Amino acid sequence: MASAEAIAKLETKAVAAEKLIELLRQQISQVKAVQSGQAGSGGAFNQEIVKLKQENSQLKSEVDAWKAKLTAAEVANGKNVFCAPTNGNVEKPKDIKVEDAPAPEAEKKEKKVKSEKPAKAPKEKKEVKKEDELPVDIGRLDLRVGHIRKASKHPDADSLYVEEIDLGEEKPRTVISGLVKFIPEEEMQDRMAIILCNLKPSKMRGIMSEAMVMCASTPEKVEIMAPPAGSKPGDLVQVDGYTRSPDAQLNPKKKIFEACAPDLKVNDAKQATYKGVLWTVNGQPITSQTLVGVQIK
Questions:
Q1: What is the pTM for the complete model shown?
Q2: pLDDT of residue 165
Q3: In angstroms, what CA-CA distances link 296 with 4, 16, 36, 235?
Q4: How far apart are CA 211 and CA 141, in angstroms?
């Protein structure tokens, strides 16, 4: 099939020939005008006219030949030709070597395929963690009864106690509390308490603290919240209306405890509450010793 370049060359030559014929026609018209004005010197003008007509005829033949070649090339390239030359005297175009070339449509498709980038694998949907679907309330806090077996002052901090607390687990937890200024050491021994168990463990002056003792608190006075009589280490704290579904470990970045803290209060009856609802263990309330209307921390 003829290449696009060969067809373009043929078309250019045909257009140039047609422009030249038009120029010769204009020259003939000018000569005729001069001839009509100067009849006395008609012989010379007649010769010029004959010469121009011969050149015109020769050029016309060449144009027809190039048009025939162009038509043959277009037909060979698969293009429909609706008006072909009909002059029988026009010489048949010589065989034109046609280079094999892909049809324009196929070429475009091939380029398109090459330019297409490999499809990216669909991104996997991130699994929604259970705790991300839960409401932020006291149900996310793992509050349990704990037994403070013993407590002693931190070797590197005068204001801190190091406590060993039984939570009904395989082994007791170590807990650090800043209670030295508020509760005498002897009162810290062998006592029951309410413990927040799912805080992220953190080192306090070189010793890892694995939980937090919940206390009724003011700037001047602090009291450990006491579970009801008969409670055992590991007993769960319940709050009516809030499903107990604690995180395995609270994420500090999500600030779950901080969101709940403003609503953790002791009411006027010395009972622990969340948004006015009692904390209970085995159906009985959790209480402070003397403090009322204060925050639980």
A1: 0.57
A2: 97
A3: 88, 100, 125, 19
A4: 12
